Amino acid sequence: MTFGQRGGADDSARLLAGSIDIHVHSDPDDRPRSIDAIDVAKLARTRGMRGIVLKNHYDPTSGI
Questions:
Q1: Lower CB density within 10 Å: C or N end of the chain?
Q2: CA-to-CA distance for 29 and 54, rounded, in angstroms?
């Protein structure tokens, strides 16, 4: 059993609030991704996160 399974949605929301994910791969990329940069930013905001750092293996992400 993982922490998420024991804690439930309330604990997950509490842990994400104010956090910054420093390693996010989004679409477009060299391989298919499940979410694009705009949608992952919106998702992070709705979860109460302070920010995300977008990563890409081959292209610069500073302009995204």
A1: N
A2: 11
What is d(CA 28, CA 24) in angstroms, rounded to the nearest whole number?
A: 12
Structure token digits, residue 42? 């919106």
Q: Is residue 3 part of a domain?
A: no
Distance (Å) of CA 2 to CA 5, 17, 22: 5, 20, 22
- Assign 39 a pLDDT band (cuts: 50, 70, 90): very high
Burial of 26 (0-12, 13-18, 19+ CB in 10 A): buried
Look up residue 63 and give its two tokens: 């302009």
What's this model's pTM, rounded to 2 decimal places?
A: 0.71
Question: Which residues are bridge partners to 21 per DSSP?
Answer: 52
Give 27's DSSP letter. Answer: B
How many structural domains are present in the chain? Answer: 1
Decide if 44 contacts 13 (C-beta within 8 A). Answer: no
